[in-house]
Amino acid sequence: MNQARIWTVVNPTVGLPLLLGSVTVIAILVHLALVENTTWFSGYWNGAAKTAAAAPAVAPVAAPAKK
C-alpha cells in the first residue's frame, strides 16, 4: 500500500469511519439525485409496470414505376 504512512498522521479509528462515512454520503446523494431528476426511477422503485413497447413503424411499399 503506497499510502501506508497516512496512518502515522491520522489514527485509523478516526480515518476509516470518515472514509466509509464519506462514501456512504456520496452514494446517498447520487441516489437522491436520480430520484429527484428522473421520471422513471421513482416508478421503478414503486414497482410500476413497464409500458408496452411501441410497434416499429413499417415503411410503406413504393408503387412500381410507370413505363
Order of helices and strands: HH
Q: Per DSSP, what share of the residues sits in E-state strands of 2 or more residues?
A: under 5%
Which whole number gives the mean pLDDT? 81
- For the termini, the CA-CA separation is 81 Å
- Oligomer state equals single chain
Shape: elongated
Number of strands: 0
Q: Could you give a short account of the major beta sheet?
A: none
Supply the helix-strand structural class: mainly alpha
Q: Give the number of helices.
A: 2
pLDDT < 50 stretches: none
Based on CA atoms alone, the radius of gyration comes out at 27 Å
Helix content: 40-55%
GO molecular function, one term: bacteriochlorophyll binding
Subunit structure: The core complex is formed by different alpha and beta chains, binding bacteriochlorophyll molecules, and arranged most probably in tetrameric structures disposed around the reaction center. The non-pigmented gamma chains may constitute additional components.
Subcellular location: Cell inner membrane
Membrane topology: Single-pass type II membrane protein
